[in-house]
Specification:
Length: 206
Amino acid sequence: MNKNFYIIPDYDFLKEEHFIPIRNYFESSHPLWTFLPDTNKAEKNSNEPHAGQFTNTILNTSVKNKRQINKLVFKSMIPLFKGIENVLPEEHSIVPIRVKCNLRYKRNKTDKTIPHVDVYNAQDTNIFSAVYYLDNADGNTILFKEFADTSESIDINKINVLAKIKPFRNRIVVFHSSRVHAGMSPMVSDTRRMINLVFKVNKKSK
């Protein structure tokens, strides 16, 4: 599938009956949140000020010799995976690689994650990402026109904004995992919660 493909459906992505169980899980006492002061390698190596975030991993197949999966919430996300398949061009199926929920908290200044890519050396692959919002909040997601092999190779002085997406509950944005992007912290809302998915796209056989 063409890496230039991206989509921002302007409607409630899931039926309410499918959205509510996902949101309710992250409002319960079940999730184990981990605070990450650096959200990616580019931030870890950067001297620029940035905010960390809390994260809860639902699925990670890339952990060496260990496949992490939270079966309790993963099952409730099947309608989300099916919904993504339905907005892809032609007949495609997806195979989830990583699914996690990120929680950014209210800040008193406008800061954002350092522009980054979700998967390294992925430009020639069919690996895509999605951001699925659980709340109405401020703190836009910014997509840039450029692609990169690594976050460290991005020249922030030479990237151009493609789209700014405001978080609305039950809204999604899908883009290639090598597309440069960044997320802003909320300044009005107490929190900004979103599910970040990375998945491989396969063309369905006829």
